[in-house]
Design brief:
This protein has 319 residues and is of the alpha/beta class. An 8-stranded mixed beta sheet has the order 1-2-4-3-5-6-7-8, with helices on both faces. 42% of the residues are buried. It folds into 2 domains: 1-30; 44-310, Alpha/Beta hydrolase fold, catalytic domain (Rossmann fold, 3-Layer(aba) Sandwich). Helix 8 (260-271) links the parallel strand 7 (246-251) and strand 8. Helix 3 crosses helix 5 (164-175). The protein has helices at 2-29, 104-112, 132-146, 148-151, 164-175, 214-221, 227-232, 260-271, 300-310, and strands at residues 44-47, 71-75, 86-90, 116-121, 158-163, 197-201, 246-251, 276-281. The protein contains 9 helices and 8 strands.
Length: 319
């Protein structure tokens, strides 16, 4: 009996081995083809003006801070995910350089939500002063709206987001805008440059002491700007009932751009009954960007996403 049992066990083992070998042969003969991962849509760079930008002082197209050719780099959503929303992103840098961590990662995050992220490379001081920077952000919004159909964007759902000095530029877009010039020969200039929403992250808002950022003011306006111009671009003074809904993010321990910048803008929004929300962090300092390595600071993009969802910014026909 023990001999028969041993033979049976050996036969069973042989059968399992043969079956495994046969399976291996079949697998070798008919390999399983894994589907290739979907390719991310390629980013595209477009000039804001096909010719020279207004007030240009050259034609340098490099990434040098004295760049004379402002551009938009467009990050579209994945195929089949487009919800029609768009966000023009203005990196910070004191109007003297553009902070890389406040550009592409933000546009890619917005594209992951189904929107189109567009990073603005605007002209900078000390070579360029106002109104070059304002011209660039206004043109970026107009260009996006004028090309909405071609770029898969709803022209009523174009927002602006900026950090630090880029937050000042975004707040300038939100408070200094027009409906376009109907008689313009350039079709882009016919459309509005008003953003439909604004997101301001540790923004420079005031250009006045004690809260204004001196470096941004100098790069934007020069050494001795006219008092009227300082008032004009202290954007807490320029809020009206037509300023778009705004989300503000700041940390209370910011020693570079004090939180009073956001507080004064929020107060002006409240006074003019403009819809807004604000997120204040107890820590974070200045320049944290998307803060991917900080569990608390990194929640602000989710908060903004929820806010935009609540405003139906990701739905066709939303204002």
């Amino acid at each position: 009996m023990r001999t028969a049992s041993k033979i049976a066990n050996r036969l069973t083992g042989c059968l399992l081995a043969v079956t495994a070998c046969a399976g291996a042969v079949r697998a070798a003969e008919t390999p399983v083809t894994q589907p290739a991962p979907a390719a991310e849509p390629a980013a595209k760079v477009v000039r804001l003006w096909q010719g020279d930008a207004p007030g240009t002082q050259g034609n340098e197209e490099s990434d040098n801070p004295t760049n004379d050719v402002p551009t938009l780099t467009i990050y579209p959503p994945a195929a089949g995910k487009n919800n029609g929303a768009a966000l023009v992103v203005c990196p910070g840098g004191g109007y003297g350089h553009l902070a890389a961590h406040e550009g592409r990662p933000v546009a890619e995050w917005f594209a992951s939500l189904g929107g189109t992220g567009l990073v603005l490379k605007y002209r900078l001081g000390p070579k360029y002063h106002h109104p070059a920077e304002m011209d660039d952000v206004q043109r970026a919004i107009r260009l996006t709206r004028a090309n909405a159909s071609e770029w898969g964007i709803d022209p009523t759902r174009i927002g602006v987001l900026g950090f630090s000095a880029g937050g000042h530029l975004a707040s300038t877009a939100a408070t200094h805008f027009d409906a376009g010039e109907a008689s313009a020969s350039d079709p882009v200039e016919k459309v509005s440059c008003r953003p439909d929403i604004a997101v301001l992250v540790y923004p420079v808002i005031s250009l006045h002491p004690p809260y204004g950022h001196g470096g941004s003011r100098k790069n934007l306006l020069g050494d001795s700007p006219d008092d009227h111009l300082v008032d004009l671009l202290s954007n807490e003074k320029q809020v009206t009932e037509k300023t778009p809904p705004t989300f503000l993010i700041h940390s209370s321990d910011d020693r570079v751009v004090p939180i009073e910048n956001s507080l004064e803008f929020a107060t002006a929004l409240a006074q003019h009954k403009v819809l807004f929300e604000m997120r204040v962090f107890a820590h974070g300092g200045h320049g944290f960007g998307m803060a991917p390595n900080d569990p608390e600071l990194s929640t602000w993009p989710r908060d903004v996403e929820q806010w935009l969802t609540k405003l139906e910014f990701f739905k066709a026909g939303a204002k």
